[in-house]
């Protein structure tokens, strides 16, 4: 069965960096698009960006543009979200998802605070 498992979240200082991982199983990344979303308490879920099955990147949300980068390692069947210059407003639960099948991971918490 299809599974997505996020990892790499934690507490980081403003201006710091963090890399999140999305380990996929039950399918190959060559077959599906993967998106990253985030949701902060009291706010709507926000699409951060994504990567097509071809490896081509989608655009990024204006709120993260220039700071976040999505990449993948096909051999490891893992998608990454590199987050740089983190701000307190980046604090949220981050999810990866597969649009084909509407599969979601359980999310990983990112907290940006001094």
Question: Which tags fit this structure?
Answer:
single chain; 114 residues; mainly beta; four-stranded antiparallel sheet
Strand content: over 45%
Main β sheet profile: 6 strands, mixed
Kindly name the structural category.
Answer: mainly beta
Q: What is the C-alpha radius of gyration, as a whole number of Å?
A: 13 Å
How far from one another are the termini?
A: 40 Å
Please state the average pLDDT score: 97
Uncertain residue segments: none
- H/I helix tally: 0
Explained architecture:
There is one protein chain. The chain has 114 residues and is an all-beta fold. The protein contains no helices and 10 strands. Strands 2, 4, 5, 8, 9 and 10 form a 6-stranded mixed β-sheet that branches. It starts with a strand and ends with a strand. The mean pLDDT is 97.
Topology readout:
Blueprint: E1 3-7, E2 10-12, E3 18-25, E4 34-39, E5 46-51, E6 68-73, E7 78-83, E8 92-98, E9 103-104, E10 108-112
Parallel strand pairs: 2-10
Antiparallel strand pairs: 1-3, 3-7, 4-5, 4-8, 6-7, 8-9, 8-10
In short:
The protein has about 110 residues and is mostly beta strands.
